[in-house]
Design brief:
This protein is mainly alpha-helical. Helices cover 58% and strands 4% of the residues. Strands 1-2-3 form a 3-stranded antiparallel β-sheet, with no helix packed on it. The longest helix is centred in the first third of the chain and has 21 residues.
């Protein structure tokens, strides 16, 4: 049987499978595309193959391992970026293996490459005072200032991701009791989030000031009436973070990025006793395991867990069953 070339599978993977059958977001597809662009760049730089002569055998375990090392050592990529590129290659191999079982052995080699563990960074978040002070920074008497205020307020209140904010249309916000915003997250999953009357009033004032009323119109736009970019959102937030930091340096990290507000909302919900399951749904996480990072990073919450565990201790000591021992160990691993 004549083996098909790598380009054949790549074409159908990107044009048919990812967007249609898998239903992945544009950003994820772009990330996968970038992974292959870098992989081809590595192959050319290493003198392994020319792009116009790529066979499926090119995607072998040795080439992929060397590519991953090249990303870290030559390009200075983080371990997280390295793992993302590997995930893209694995997703492609999974597709190829299903489409052409004769390529399974080749794909199995890539499947066996393990992700690289990175030191877990502490979650950066702002205290309530820092969020309140940050919201005072924009000039609400100017169209740009009220836009920036509305953006910061909504990012915090809804805990939305940057892309969810950028994709937001006027029709996604319901100005009624209760006020809500409909967010479309990863995998096109939709969730409805309540927002306060104050936040809703700020957003309404901004839309009125900017003359935006069409339900299909993007909520947050630049001076050219185009949707804000990810870098545009980051610039706005860091600008006000810089101003706030000058007056209250103890409240802010060296740089504010949009995810800080998402982290902050999650931590404040957790600190107020909101269940992790609700926070998972609020943030749009696929698993509560992802949400548990917030429970692990706060020393005060750890102390509360330990106190709760201590309150369960009685004067009578009974021998633990095996299942109770396993449950206790699992609880400690999760919370401490």
């Amino acid at each position: 049987m004549h083996r098909k070339e790598l380009s054949y599978y790549l074409t159908s993977f990107f044009t048919e499978y990812l967007g249609n059958e898998a239903g992945l977001s544009i950003n994820t597809i772009k990330s996968y595309r970038d992974a292959f662009i870098l992989f081809f760049k590595y192959l050319e730089e290493a003198g392994i193959f020319k792009i116009n002569k790529l066979k499926m055998d090119t995607l072998n375990v040795d080439n992929v391992n060397r590519f991953l090392d090249w990303l870290e050592q030559s390009r200075g990529c983080s371990i997280s970026s390295r793992n993302q590129r590997l995930a893209a290659l694995k997703a492609f191999c999974s597709y190829v293996a299903r489409k052409s079982p004769e390529e399974s052995n080749l794909c199995q080699g890539v499947f066996k490459i393990r992700i690289k563990k990175a030191p877990q960074k502490p979650v950066e978040y702002l205290c309530v005072d820092a969020v309140e002070y940050l919201i005072k920074m924009p000039d609400s008497h100017s169209t740009q200032g009220i836009r920036d205020l509305a953006m910061i307020a909504l990012m915090y209140e809804s805990g939305c991701r940057v892309q969810e904010l950028i994709d937001l249309s006027v029709g996604d916000i319901a100005f009624r009791s209760p006020n809500t915003v409909t967010l479309t997250g990863k995998g096109k999953k939709v969730r409805v989030i309540p927002i306060s009357t104050n936040a809703a009033d700020i957003i309404k004032a901004y839309l009125n000031s900017a003359g935006i009323s069409d339900v299909a119109h993007s909520v947050f736009v630049n001076r050219y009436d185009k949707p804000l970019s990810r870098s545009g959102v980051s610039y706005v937030l860091d600008k006000y973070g810089h101003i706030a930091r000058k007056a209250r340096p103890e409240l802010y990290p060296p740089k504010l990025h949009p995810h800080v507000l998402r982290h902050s909302k999650a931590m404040h919900l957790l600190e107020n006793g909101v269940n992790l399951i609700y926070i998972r749904d609020f943030l749009g996480h696929s698993s509560v395991t992802t949400t548990e990072i917030y429970a692990r990073c706060n020393p005060e919450l750890k102390r509360k867990y330990i106190e709760q565990a201590g309150s369960l201790i009685t004067e009578s000591v009974e021998e633990y069953s095996e299942s109770e021992k396993e449950a206790l160990i699992a609880w400690l691993r999760k919370n401490i």
